[in-house]
Amino acid sequence: RWNTDFTCETFNCGRHCNVMSTELIEIAELVTSWSNSDEQIEAVVTSDRETEVRAYEGEIESLTVAESQGIGVRVVKDGRQGFAYAGTLEENELLEVLSEARDNASFASPDEFSGLAEPDGVECVSLEVYSDGVDSISTSKKIDYALELEKLTLATDKRISGIESSEYTDVVSESAIATSTGIRASSKESGCSLMVYTLAEEKGETQTGFGFSIGRSPEELDMEKAANDASDRATRMLGSTKPKSERLTVVLDPWVSAQFLQIVGSTLSAEMVLKGRSLFTDRLGEKVASPIISLVDDPTNPRAFTATETDGEGLATRRNVLIENGELKMFLHNVWTARKAASTSTGSAIRSYASTPGVGIQAVSLRPGGRDPVDLIAGIDNGILIQSVTGLHSGVNPVSGDFSTGAEGLRISDGELSEPLREFTIGSTIQKMLKDVSEVGNDLEWLPMNSAGSTLVINELTVSGA
């Protein structure tokens, strides 16, 4: 699923950052115009159009074409915050949502840090995040994408015995936000993807794999890459065995490293820090990772598929350097956490129309290294390449940093990939793993999530198997 953030024109930008969705911004401004002099009002309005096609055995298993819309309203009065939302944009419902938010505020406890965002003078970066390609192709063409992907994947290797699912999805999201404090923002974003899940069979053994391709427009999708990746991930695991337990060098492929970065990024949220749920609490300025690690959250990077011009409170997004050369430099803030921590917002508010703003990463990545994955693996005598993990997010303690997760991958012997391995776990702590990173690959890859992946070499991790 594609994130629905808010890209914008704020009053302080001094220029148009994006073509505005006129109807949505007018609705948001209408609601804020009903504010009283002793209160602040924020209105967030969204409208989405989605298509999902799933093919199975040469037929269309399911087809969904859906539209949704909604509005969320926040009211702040005397330090008390109230919130309400509705899945409709009818004017009588707008009045009802505002009334409910006001009523909820009257029951809330006072909070000296409550309040809406105000223009902070940071200029938003203009991004091309919408392509009319999604809107211009017919539904029948989208169906053809799913059917053709299934057919192409089956033809990649004779050991591919079946396709669990072959999918084409797309979404066009329009958003607007207005506040009585001077924020005015709007966006229109598009995204589409191909995803295929394969079954490979040989000598009575079955393995699974997946492949995907993502873009802003269908013309950017690479069907052959999705098919070949799914086939390779499944077939190379045929004949896999359970490794013995040992400590050895582990290489994470980009898909896996991106998932770990999501976890690291989430613990760098000031919201997590203030709640005492971050392993990095009270560690600003410390060396928390290998000197080759520089971690950046940059939603202004146009290569990221979660790129956005403004955050969930309408402030301009910006490039935030979280860890630089191994040193913890900053935490991510929204308006509320910034006020509580006597800091400033980092443009990192995340939310939907049906929620109040939280804090989180938006497009996190590591600074790439100088060598490609083949060269990295060539320097390893005994190790394992991890190609997938299971249960990672539930297997990590965000306070202690301890983790243990199921994994599968390929043995590395004398600098080359060799036999496939399965049914083992890898475990350590996030802190130790970050300090044990010895190489970062040059293969930075933006994925369908709020983080990018790179090949990572970890000096030593515990592998628990036979």
- Biggest sheet layout: 6 strands, antiparallel
Question: Average pLDDT, to the nearest integer?
Answer: 93
Rounded to an integer in angstroms, the radius of gyration calculated over CA atoms is 24 Å
Helix proportion range? 10-25%
Order of helices and strands: HEEEHHHEEEHEHHEEEHEEEHEEEHEEEE
Count of alpha and pi helical runs: 10
* End-to-end CA span: 37 Å
Class from secondary-structure proportions: alpha+beta
Secondary structure: number of strands: 20
The residue ranges in which pLDDT falls below 50 over 5 or more consecutive positions are: 1-20
What percentage of amino acids are in beta strands? 35-45%
Strand order of the largest sheet: 3-2-1-4-5-6
- Overall morphology: globular
Could you explain how this protein is built, in words?
With 466 residues, the protein is α+β, with helices and mostly antiparallel strands. Helix content is 21%, strand content 36%. The chain is built from 10 helices and 20 strands. The strands form 5 sheets. A 6-stranded antiparallel beta sheet has the order 3-2-1-4-5-6. The protein has a 5-stranded mixed barrel with strand order 7-14-15-16-20. A 4-stranded antiparallel beta sheet has the order 10-9-8-13, with helices on one face. Helix 4 runs parallel beside helix 5. The two termini are 37 Å apart. The relative contact order is 0.15.
